[in-house]
Amino acid sequence: MIDRYLLCEIMDNDWLSERVSIHLLITCEFPSAYGATPNHVCKEDEDHICRDISASTAAGKHSLSDHSQAGVFKVDIRNLSLSDAGVYWCGAETSAGDIRYISLFTKVQIKIRCK
Question: What does pTM read for this prediction?
């Protein structure tokens, strides 16, 4: 969902090009097996380590909204900047006995190019 435009373009997994907005909304579909488990989003760093941004509320930069009845959750990235380009992963918290972990199931590549 794009509502305000900058002089940049954005490309997602589908390689569709649109104008970049002040915020970017990513819709993450998740398998029904994850049901009501907590949702997570992380961004890969240059070492391919995925840093969780789900709990990051620094200046309201990221927010998650759960639409589990529709089988999706949404990630809103506000005040979009060039540093927001990169690989994001959608996932959900799962467990095996006493061990809790995050299963990643959707990869989203965001590219931002300014003219």
Answer: 0.74
